[in-house]
Specification:
The complex is a heterodimer of chains A (274) and B (333). Helices cover 75% and strands 3% of the residues of chain A. In chain A, strand 1 and strand 2 form a beta hairpin. Chain A has 274 residues and is an all-alpha fold. Chain A has two domains: 41 residues, no CATH class; 210 residues, MetI-like (MetI-like fold, Orthogonal Bundle), CATH 1.10.3720.10. By secondary structure, chain B is of the alpha/beta class. Chain B has two domains: 178 residues, Periplasmic binding protein-like II (D-Maltodextrin-Binding Protein, domain 2, 3-Layer(aba) Sandwich), CATH 3.40.190.10; 144 residues, Periplasmic binding protein-like II (D-Maltodextrin-Binding Protein, domain 2, 3-Layer(aba) Sandwich). In chain B, strands 4, 5, 6, 7, 8, 9 and 10 form a seven-stranded mixed beta sheet that branches. Chain B has a three-stranded parallel beta sheet with strand order 2-1-3. In chain B, strand 1, helix 2 and strand 2 form a beta-alpha-beta unit. Classes of the chains: A mainly alpha (274), B alpha/beta (333). At the A-B interface, helix 3 and helix 11 of A face helix 3, strand 7 and helix 13 of B.
């Protein structure tokens, strides 16, 4: 009884700020407003499945997947080092990952502009070492760099939290039973860390798929991503119907990817960030 | 108790004026002066784009007394019945406004607005990197400057430049002309370093690019920071734009808003604002007091004959979707 009354504020909150806005998105997505009035229609969705918009979707998916993969490849070893016994300064690494997150996301991305530009910090450094200059600002590479830089902590932290909870006895037992370190990793540590990997992937993939600031600033606006497209519909064109339809497609895509992810997770319901 | 009485009494005596303006678009000491002279407390908020401002006013709940939309946004808000009429008799200083800036297409009888600042769209270029004469939009399509060109990440402006290059109106509703402009922009894309917004002027100041499509006010700022930069208005035509002052429907202090408009067009105040922001004032009395090199600078204050081909952006209604599609095609190309 007491429990359910304690839920009331949260239910009101969720209804006001989650359910109602979502219903509005659905409403706008399925209606078209013309001077004659508002009618129900699938027009917004059929428009989205035209080649130009599919190309935007494809590019967003590709960039998000690549960034997620790079985050995983970079983040997993870091998480292992932090969770390992050998390393005594894990708090320092943790701090190094967390401190930049205290700064504003936009500011950090602007900083990369100054680092990567033609006469920027990176090129000044490279040419002072008589190395060839690097012009990667306003390319896909810069966008991926920005995503990896901004989202890497979201990969490292959940993996670390799962890895640090693995019972050391299990690892030792595997060793005692004759598994070499590779085998211990592939057969014991990695499978046990899957829940962390899954939540890390989800937490990187989702923001990477929908970002519009990174692609605008570091990509020089040359690569419209799905986030830019949505932003444009609401702020520039004022076509809320089409913007809502794209948002709905994104929500469905994200739900699908979470369903696929939770399929992997089912075997083992260890603590994750979710 | 007494304190609260005093406070509420104070509130009653001193009316407030809620002002909603672009960021960094006023000499803020002017606000204090207005408070002192008129006994009206000013609450000052800023926005970054017309669209942000529109959404905030449209959704209601905000109580601004005076807003500063651009020309096309004024049209849109007027059409949607979001504005109060203004009474020019209560703004005697409007007599200082140049007659060519009164009664413009977006508000033919100045029933709803008075211009605050105005400017053009043109090409900002670095004289150490560009040796050709810059007087045409063609230069933004010159392969010689591949990867040295900055365009605006703004549909109307970038498509507008392509339309002007083709000799069309930048308010065209003709799908054929728009397709041609779209193709021209796709063709230009390999030459473009980036499509920028605010960061464009910093890139030009830092010498990161040779040419940029820019608004005159941004250009004035950049030229102050880097003297190698120059600004040109292409001969094919340009966009002439206005940021105006208007009163949203439901404003609580209409009278204060009119007083504020009048105050901003007092010549000495208008002068200070023009000097502070670097934008061009439509106030003739303020203009003559500007330093000669500013007043005679054709980039900031072009003559009337330089602007014969200049057009104001018109609100396009549903055709805006066509612009959006073309822009998305260019960007996804």
């Amino acid at each position: 009884m007491r429990k359910s009354s304690a839920m009331v504020p949260y239910l009101i909150w969720m209804a006001l700020f989650i359910v109602i806005p979502l219903l509005l998105v659905v409403y706008y997505a399925f209606t078209v407003t013309t001077p004659e009035g508002t009618t129900w229609s699938f027009e917004n969705f059929t428009r989205f499945f035209e080649p130009i918009y599919l190309r935007v979707l494809w590019r967003s998916l590709a960039l998000a997947l690549i960034s997620t993969l790079i985050c995983l490849l970079l983040g997993y070893p870091v998480a292992m080092i932090m969770a390992g016994n050998a390393f005594s300064r894990k708090n320092v690494i943790m701090l190094l990952f967390v401190v930049p997150m205290w700064m504003n996301f936009l500011l950090r991305t602007y900083a990369w502009l100054a680092i990567l530009e033609r006469n920027g910090f990176l090129n000044v450094l490279l040419s002072s070492l008589s190395l060839p200059r690097l012009n990667i600002l306003y390319t896909n590479a810069a966008v991926i760099l920005g995503m990896v830089y901004n989202f890497l902590p979201f990969m490292v932290l959940p993996i670390y939290s799962v890895l640090s909870k693995i019972d050391k006895g299990v690892v030792e037992a595997a060793g005692d039973l004759g598994a070499n370190s590779v085998k211990v990793f592939t057969r014991v540590i990695f499978p046990l860390s899957l829940p962390g990997v899954v939540s890390g992937i989800t937490m990187v993939f989702m923001p990477a798929l929908t970002t519009f600031v990174i692609s605008r600033l570091l990509g020089g606006g040359q690569f419209t991503l799905i986030g830019n497209l949505i932003e444009q519909q609401f702020l520039v064109v004022g076509d809320w119907g089409f913007g809502s339809a794209i948002s709905m497609v994104m929500i469905i895509l994200i739900l699908l990817s979470m369903a696929i992810m939770s399929f992997f997770e089912d075997e083992d319901k260890e603590a994750t960030l979710w | 108790m007494i304190l609260s009485l005093v406070l509420s009494g104070c509130k009653q005596d001193k009316p407030t004026l809620h002002v909603y303006n672009w960021g960094d678009y006023i000499d803020e000491s002017i606000l204090e002066e207005f408070e002192k002279e008129m006994g009206i407390k000013v609450v000052y908020d800023t926005f970054a784009t017309n669209e942000d401002m529109y959404v905030k006013i449209k959704s209601g709940g905000s109580s601004y007394d005076i807003i500063f939309p651009s020309d096309y946004m004024l049209t849109r808000m007027r059409e949607e019945d979001m504005l109060e009429k203004i009474d020019l008799d209560k703004i005697p200083n409007h007599k200082y406004l140049e007659s060519r800036f009164m009664g413009t297409e977006f508000d033919p009888n100045n029933e709803y607005s008075l211009p605050y600042m105005w400017g053009t769209m043109g090409i900002l270029y670095n004289t150490t990197m560009v040796d050709d004469k810059v007087d045409s939009w063609d230069i933004l399509w010159d392969p010689k400057y591949a990867k040295e060109i900055l365009m605006l990440d703004s549909q109307r402006d970038s498509i507008g430049a392509a339309l002007l290059k083709l000799g069309y109106s930048l308010n065209t509703l003709d799908p054929q002309e728009l397709t041609e402009a779209g193709n021209l922009l796709k063709q230009q894309k390999p030459l473009v370093l980036a499509y920028v917004v605010d960061e464009g002027k910093d890139k030009m100041v830092a010498g990161e690019a040779a040419l940029a499509l820019t608004w005159s006010g941004e250009a004035a700022y950049a030229r102050e920071e880097n003297e190698d930069l120059a600004y040109a208005i292409p001969k094919e035509g340009t966009n002439i734009w206005f940021d105006v002052m208007a009163i949203p429907k439901g404003a609580k202090n209409k009278d204060g808003a009119l007083k504020f408009m009048d105050f901003l067009h007092r010549p000495d105040i208008s002068l200070r604002n023009a000097e502070y922001t670097g934008y061009a004032t439509p106030n003739s009395a303020a203009k003559v007091m500007l330093p000669e090199e500013v007043r005679n600078d054709l980039g900031s204050y072009p003559e009337e004959e330089d602007l014969v081909n200049a057009e104001v952006f018109v609100n396009l209604g549903r055709t805006l979707k066509e612009y959006d599609r073309i822009w998305t095609e260019v960007k996804a190309h």
